[in-house]
Design brief:
Layout (H helix, E strand, L loop, with lengths): L2 H26 L1 H9 L7 H28 L1 H24 L5 E2 L5 E2 L1 H34 L1
Helix pairs in contact: 1-3, 3-4, 4-5
Length: 148
């Protein structure tokens, strides 16, 4: 069996399961599901939620495997991808070095640790650096095209 037949069979099985779960939910009714949820019983909705997570995992796995397979088949693309990953890691490292962490009380009474605060700062700085790079690249491209 080739991969297309397997994919088609898996898609049909997942679709039938989703249809069965949907019919089950619709036959039970909104009010009954809402009353069950107030009591902490999510047995009506849990199967379709689990199915959605399984489908998401399968799609992510297929995407990652096919991406790596395409990269492995072309050394030039693999080299460019590794350079891009290294550049991104460098931006995150620079952001981490310039971030500082301070314990911060949250609205719900919890406390954000200093390490958590530092990672939040790292994420923000990474976003800002990448945004500046993107805008700079667009401006450079526009100016370069304008003068040609």
């Amino acid at each position: 069996m080739n991969i297309q037949k397997i994919t088609k069979i898996v898609a049909i099985v997942l679709g039938v399961l989703g249809l069965i779960f949907q019919v089950t939910i619709l036959s039970k009714g909104d009010d009954a599901i809402e009353m069950d949820s107030f009591a902490g019983n999510f047995s009506s909705v849990s199967p379709i939620t689990t199915l959605a997570l399984v489908i998401l995992a399968v799609v992510v796995l297929i995407t990652v495997v096919s991406s790596f397979a395409a990269l492995a088949s072309n050394p030039t693309k693999l080299k460019k991808a590794l350079i891009s990953v290294a550049a991104f890691a460098l931006v995150v490292l620079i952001s981490f070095v310039f971030s500082e962490g301070v314990e911060t009380p949250l609205k719900d009474g919890e406390v954000l640790s200093a390490a958590g605060s530092r990672w939040v700062g790292t994420g923000l700085r990474t976003f800002y650096i990448l945004a500046v790079i993107a805008v700079g690249t667009m401006v450079y491209s526009g100016v370069k095209r304008f003068f040609k």
